[in-house]
Specification:
Layout lengths: L23 H64 L3 H29 L6 H15 L4
Helix pairs in contact: 1-2, 1-3
Keywords: Membrane, Transmembrane, Transmembrane helix
Organism: Spirilliplanes yamanashiensis
Protein name: Phage holin family protein
């Protein structure tokens, strides 16, 4: 039996050859290719996990930014309400006070929502860490 020819991208096919005829060099080459492929897949998984967590962080930051803007408007309208209310206790001052209170409620809701969302952000790519642990365990004991 002649040694099989390996082309790039082809793996071991037990139906085509007798494993006892495979050279050590070919086996090491296949293992090296498989490990390289596994490493690339692990890197892609880590990228996907980090990208997903960054999106969560971006949404939470947007809500916190909205809360900051709403807080700014609260101070602005409260200042107008206080000035108008003290200057002449009329409809304009009370109207501005109502608007300021509404903005305060919006700020509180956005802040609480953003705070909850930021707790869900996990910068650690946990699935990748787990699969890397499994890979390391397999490398230590490939037969078991």
């Amino acid at each position: 039996m002649t040694a099989p020819s390996y082309r790039s991208g082809q793996g071991f096919d037990p139906a085509q050859e007798d494993p006892s005829q495979t050279s050590v060099g070919e086996l090491i080459g296949e293992i090296s290719d498989d490990l390289s492929k596994l490493f690339r897949q692990e890197v892609e998984l880590a990228k996907a996990e980090v990208r997903q967590e960054a999106q969560k962080a971006g949404k939470a930051a947007g809500m916190l930014g909205g809360a900051g803007f709403a807080g700014y408007l609260t101070v602005l309208f409260l200042s107008f309400a206080l000035a108008w209310g003290l200057g002449n206790v009329m409809d304009y001052g009370w109207a501005a006070l109502i608007v300021a209170v509404l903005w305060g409620i919006v700020a509180a809701v956005l802040f609480v929502s953003g705070k909850k969302k930021i707790k869900d952000v996990d910068p650690m790519p946990r699935r990748t860490v787990e699969t890397l642990k499994e890979d390391a365990q397999w490398l230590k004991n490939p037969t078991g």
